Amino acid sequence: MDEYFVGDRRMGAGHIGFSVVATDVGGGFSIGLGGLGFAMGLSGSWLLFTGLVGAWMAAVILIPRVKALGDKYGWLTFPDFLEHRFDGRTRLAAAVVSAIGYAGFVGAQLLAGAKLGAVAFEVDVTTAVFVMAAVVLLYTAFGGMQAVVFTDTIQWAVLLGGLILVALPAAYFHVGGLDGLAAALPPEHLTLTNVTGKELLTWAITIIPIWFVGMTLYQRIYATRDVQTAKRAFYLAGLLEYPLMAFTGTALGMMARVVFPAAEPELGLPMLIKEVLPVGAVGIVMAAYFSAIMSTADSCLLASVGNCVNDLYQRYLRPNASARQVLRLSRILTLVIGALSVAVALLLPMVLDAILLAYSFMVSGLFVPTLAGLLWKRATAEAAFWSTIGGGFSAVALGLFPALDPFGEPVLTAMPVSAVLLVSLSLLRPEPEALAETAPYSG
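User: That's the sequence. What structure does it adopt?
Assistant: Structure tokens below.
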């Protein structure tokens, strides 16, 4: 199980760093970032600046506190930490929130691939979803974490090479360089100020906390050789997100708007790749985007499976199951959860909206108790449990009934709900006898 879920805890910073950024940015954010560049210009790059901040904060605050403990106790998942710090019911609540969120996130990646395939190969969206899902599910089911991390490294190298060496220069010359962009785009598209304070706040609150609660990220922390290796990997991942990928994606989206001004924003980039680049270059860049999509889908799929197997099945249903039984179930659940994600992909409207919705659900329920578990000795198990439940399902309720949302963004209301529950219950119902046992660790 160590080999399947955390690569035997011996992987290096390079592979893990590329895998982290490939998982976080991936196909959904790649297509979505192009859509932001199309709609708002260079200011869309601020979306991934939050990734840089989140990755480096996790390297400083999170990794030193969880890596050594993860190795000592053999942790495989994020909820393992919450049970160690709080109790089993907090672990259960976190596992449910994480598994659902990541299953939805896989669906968003499959939708991104379907949109790309529909434009690139003139096939219908349903066919594109099934073909890509079949490939991702098979190699993830049989290869586990090492297959995911090693393929992520290759996929991200293909993505960067395809975009920077082929797509950017070809599209740049096609639109007439800076003069062509300035003539065809609104002036605000060439600035970094074409974004509202509410958008920046929503991106920051939604994306930065995911670096502290993302199951895929904990698996990669546990998979590294030691604390310093994990920190180097996260520093590398942050730089790859911003400025490298942030400006590459938005610039390509801006060029897509010059060529196809009437296109749907998220379809403009695939249309640009197909119509503007030479035939051979189209193949390289399409391979790059499909690689990014797979690199995120496989990691999120494995995360959801890990929550179901390690945090639910082994913990509550079959604690005495053999390693062979658990591995067999892991592979079966990979296929089952993948099939459910396919169904989600066929129902979702916009890629970026789907990603941010999945993120907001997870961070609303998980970030506050996680941060308190790391930094606040007085946080109690009861408070952490209700904070997880209250935050996560407040986000769901506001998403289902947007008329009740005072800010128009569920996370802006749900996360304060989670914080109020945690602080008030911890102070009103303290657990003094448990403070020494559950105090945060320095790693």
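The CA atoms of residues 5 and 145 lie 5 Å apart.
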